[in-house]
Amino acid sequence: MLAVIPYATKDAGYDPRADIAPVCLAVDFSNVLVVHPGMPANTLAEYLALARRPDGMDYGTSGVGSAGHLADELLKARSGARLNHVPFRGGGPAMNDLVAGHVPSLIASAPTATGFMREGRIRALAATGARRSPFDPDIPTIAEQGFPGYAATNWYAVVVSSKVSPEIVATLNAILTKALKAPEVRLAYGQQGMETLASTQAEAAAHIAHETEVWKKVIADAGIRLD
Q: What pTM did the predictor assign?
């Protein structure tokens, strides 16, 4: 949301380029495009073919401006398919309606979707990350299914006010990256479908700047508003 709110609201109250100092990237995980088992699509290509019909294809997310919403709007822009957003009040209600067959497809976080996938209650067609998730390595990415360069993940960063001294920021980075690299921490996050990043300050700043530009355009093109 750090790279979303300032461009989807009239006044976010902060400028991510001027008011925030990145400390480090902490964790990252993909979303997954999943469908109800009754849908006659087993690949992303088949799904998009269905979505090019006059009525298009409905897809649910955890809400307007969510990571899933942005991921699908990026896919919509890249593919030209008719993808119709159905926002829910959270990932739980959205998943419940997918399993019940009330919505045909969903962009869900991998941790939310994995249990249902393994039970056969939903079917995964694609992961939204730049590379396959170590948590679900059998799910091909959108990028490798005809959309090179496509990437949309959930990521969390530690940031502080830009008024904090560089010495304190550097100290925080050292402490946090040491913790994030600890085997028990990596295991704990991995069990939830998350990959620890433990980045440098420069890597965090570059990632936030890149993500800000990508999603700023998607938000503008799709007319996404949070207010």
A: 0.88
Q: What percent of the chain stands above pLDDT 90? A: 67
Provide the 10 A C-beta neighbour count for residue 151: 18
- String of b and e for 187-213 (b: at least 16 CB within 10 Å)? eebeeebbbbbbbebeebbebbeebbe
| Cα 215–chain centre separation | 11
DSSP secondary structure of 173-209: HHHHHHHHTSHHHHHHHHTTT-EE----HHHHHHHHH
- Burial of residue 22 (CB within 10 Å: 0-12, 13-18, 19+) is buried
How many angstroms separate the CA atoms of 106 and 72, rounded? 9
Distance CA 163, CA 18 (A): 10
Show Cβ contacts of residue 168 under 8 Å, excluding neighbours closer than 6 positions.
160
Name, in order, each residue with C-beta under 8 angstroms of 151's C-beta and a sequence gap of 6 or more. 128, 129, 130, 143
